[in-house]
């Protein structure tokens, strides 16, 4: 075997060992949320902090944030028609994790979902059971 492939193999082995030593987070630790009644992905268009003017209550109003964005502060509910006219503090997109995800985030489109189980969360030492439209803070694009 080529030396660089052998080194890569060894690194993979070490990483697998490390993964076995460090337990995966539970659903509660990863802020797992059950599917909403409407069974849709989490996005700005179903967040209480979004305004239909394509702005968000907690980000700079100069940022154009369409309904296809989402961030770590998502809070399910009906959006506003317009932002309230008062001074407030803002978070940066880097801190909130603002990303464009058309269709929103949910287990069904997450890298870690596999046959109704999550490879990034555990329940009693086994991959956690999930539903198509549930979600959590560990969501990652495929
Ligand atoms: S950017 Fe985050 S907090 Fe703002 S509307 Fe979108 S999901 Fe909600
Ligand atoms: S599949 Fe993804 S979004 Fe769903 S619980 Fe697992 S990490 Fe979270």
Any chance you could write out the topology, listing elements then pairs?
Elements: H1 3-21, E1 50-51, E2 55-56, E3 69-70, H2 93-96, E4 99-100, E5 113-114, E6 117-123, E7 126-129
Antiparallel strand pairs: 1-2, 3-4, 5-6, 6-7
The site of one iron/sulfur cluster (SF4) has 14 residues, from β6.
SS class: alpha+beta
How far is the first residue's CA from the last residue's CA?
A: 31 Å
Bound molecules: iron/sulfur cluster
Q: Low-confidence parts lasting 5 or more residues at pLDDT below 50? A: none
Q: How much of the residues is beta strand, in percent?
A: 5-15%
Q: Helical stretch count? A: 2
Fraction in helix: 10-25%
Biggest beta-sheet profile: 3 strands, antiparallel
Q: Radius of gyration from the CA trace?
A: 19 Å
Overall geometric form: elongated
Order of helices and strands: HEEEHEEEE
In what order do the strands lie side by side in the largest sheet? 5-6-7
Mean pLDDT over the full residue set: 90
Give me the count of strands. Answer: 7
Count of separate structural domains: 2
